[in-house]
Amino acid sequence: MKKQVLIWVFLLMVSPLQAQNLNADWQRLNELFTGEFNNFQQVWQEREDTIPDSLVHEHIHSIFKPVSIPALGTNVFFVKQYMNGDPNNVYRMRVYQFVPDKKEKAIRLDIYSFKDKADEERFKLADENPSLLTSLTSEQFTSVPGCSVYWKKQTNDEFIGTMKPRACNFVSRRSNKRIYITDTLKLNAEEIWISDQATDEDGRYVFGHKGNIPHKLRRVRPFKGWVAIVKDGTDRNNIQDSDYVFIPDLKLHDQGVKKRIVRPDGTVTPYSFELSQVVFQKKTPVMKLAIYEDGKPKALSYTWTNPEAERIGINLRWVQVGLTQVKE
Known about the structure:
The chain is mainly β. About 15% of the residues lie in helices and about 45% in strands. It has two domains: about 10-220, Beta Barrel (Lipocalin), CATH 2.40.128; about 220-325.
């Protein structure tokens, strides 16, 4: 009897401790999840290695923005993901919510979709204006049972998220077969790895990377900057200060975003610049700033610095670019 009492007392002591740890993990997960991520570096390296096109990952950008939707509760995120560095090429919009799940001893991620597809168009800029979502009701969302992701913290301040085996499934309208989805993720302070895989009821491939390699997205650092470019018709061998057009307040990030140079009057130039993090010869990580001209795959010129640099610039005389990291 005494032994049973001691065990019961121990359980009473451990239970609040587990709950406390789970709440701490919950808060940390919300911190790490907040931000923007991009796998430019992964795709760039794959193309450098000339691997088969069927194994080159899609170039994706993920935005995870904390928002307020009182109808759903707390710890809610607006999620927008787009491809090929084009913010207009959005392939997924969702609302996520993290909830401590004591039964599962994990943080459960519930995933909501907009019931009305028209809402995806209405709210596609909610990452820039979160107030658009405040008045939404729970009836405007839908979710698929069994598709929650369960996150657990590892010893190295890293989280692993998994779905329950074969729990997330639906019947395809196209094939009339049941589709099973598996989502495995890894998140830390520097990156998020996303592996979405789907097979049908016969075990046949539906979607996902055919090499079963996750999309490896790096956390982006925001930068702001300016461009000075000479006016059309300027003699580039005899440039005067008055020959420049100044373009201020440019915004971009360090994970492969390419920015077209557009003059203040709206004139589109054939030049773009790109800020990226790459690894030269698979051993030297750098931050690179390059200038490109339409129709020419190789950069006209580029410069590089250490990956942690907060400022970078380039001066070709006829065009100049300066960028500074934005501290958030």
